[in-house]
Automatic annotation (TrEMBL):
GO terms for molecular function: G protein-coupled receptor activity; olfactory receptor activity. The chain crosses the membrane at residues 28-52, 64-88, 100-121, 142-162, 200-229, 241-263, 275-295. This is Olfactory receptor 2AT4-like. The keyword Membrane applies. It is a multi-pass membrane protein. The lineage of its organism: Eukaryota, Metazoa, Chordata, Craniata, Vertebrata. It comes from the Eukaryota. InterPro entries: GPCR_Rhodpsn (IPR000276), GPCR_Rhodpsn_7TM (IPR017452), Olfact_rcpt (IPR000725). Gene3D superfamilies: Rhodopsin 7-helix transmembrane proteins.
Length: 319
């Protein structure tokens, strides 16, 4: 192991990846390349149909485009480097690049949690206050809500990232992960009180930025369900609830993957399982979001079909 020096001497980190899967680098490359392409195609398709279809120019779909842009950025911070690791064994990452990746990954993680809260608030206003919905959810309000989520989320991780960069590392430090996750980097630092405190602080912040948004989503949907149950007609209740199912599935997927990653860490599972659970969290939601909204949302499904057959594969006119 390298001798511990000040963080100024740390020139690079060595990403170990999956220790038990070192002989399966090419299959891993192909699998993650497929996932990345599906994420890009799916989310770009969502953004495109929302932009080009006037019928989708609604607050709900404005926030959906934010989620799709977020998912593209979120996966782009980690997967390209992982692909290089698996294909050409490029496991070394510079000190600066590692902390930029770490900040981007955790900042965008928080952004996703807050965007999901904003989307639940939009559904709350649409169902609980339908008469005032158009007045409250104006274009300006939508932009303010989305911007607040992005800016707040990018501010929250900054102090922790700066403090972590001041820890002592060896000149080349092994990080047992596929990317620069905060916990993995802190565990790779020279053992001292600062590293222990950073682990505790990172855990507290992670729980806060996960549980508080989750509680806000739960509160919103509690009011939404109460309002739906007050609707007299069965058809009206079904229609109101159908506008929320896609978002609920996305929220469930997002927090389930977080829970799996948390349990794998707290249960002291083998390093490969812990790394894989974090990688699944980084990939699963961006991969499933376009599929969920395409299959569950009738308006998005219609817009996608119309775009495919009118723009990509236009039907030939009858002779």
């Amino acid at each position: 192991m390298d001798s511990c020096n000040s963080s100024a001497s740390a020139k690079s980190f060595f990403l170990v990846g999956f220790p038990a899967l070192q002989d399966y680098q090419l299959p891993l490359f192909l699998v993650f390349l497929l996932f990345y392409l599906l994420i890009l195609v799916g989310n770009i398709a969502i953004i495109t149909v929302v932009v080009v279809d006037p019928k989708l120019h609604k607050p709900m779909y404005f926030f959906l485009t934010n989620l799709s842009v977020l998912d593209i950025l979120f996966t782009t911070t980690t997967i390209p480097k992982m692909l290089a690791m698996f294909l050409v064994d490029a496991k070394t990452i510079s000190f600066q690049a590692c902390f930029l990746q770490m900040y981007s990954f955790h900042g965008l993680t928080v952004t996703e949690a807050l965007i999901l809260v904003v989307m639940s608030y939009d559904r709350y206003e649409a169902i609980c206050n339908p008469l005032h919905y158009a007045v409250k959810m104006t274009k300006r309000m939508n932009i303010q809500l989305a911007a607040s989520a992005w800016i707040t989320a990018l501010i929250i991780p900054a102090p922790v990232m700066i403090q972590t960069s001041q820890l002592a590392f060896g000149e080349t430090t092994k990080v047992y992960h596929c990317f620069c996750d905060h916990l993995a980097v802190v565990q790779a630092a020279c053992p001292d009180f600062g590293a222990t405190f950073q682990t505790f602080l990172g855990f507290c912040i992670a729980m806060t930025v996960s549980l508080v948004p989750l509680m806000l989503v739960v509160v919103s949907y509690t009011h939404i369900i109460i309002s739906i149950l007050k609707i007299n007609s069965k058809e009206g209740r079904s229609k109101a609830f159908s506008t929320c199912t896609s978002h609920l599935i996305v929220v469930g997927t997002y927090y389930s993957s977080i829970a799996v990653a948390y349990v794998s860490y707290r249960a002291r599972m083998p390093i490969d399982i812990h790394v894989m659970s974090n990688v699944v969290f980084a990939i699963l939601t961006p991969l499933l979001n376009p599929l969920i909204y395409t299959l569950r949302n009738k308006e998005v499904k219609r817009a996608v079909k119309q775009f495919i057959f009118s723009k990509i594969f236009p039907l030939t006119k009858k002779m």
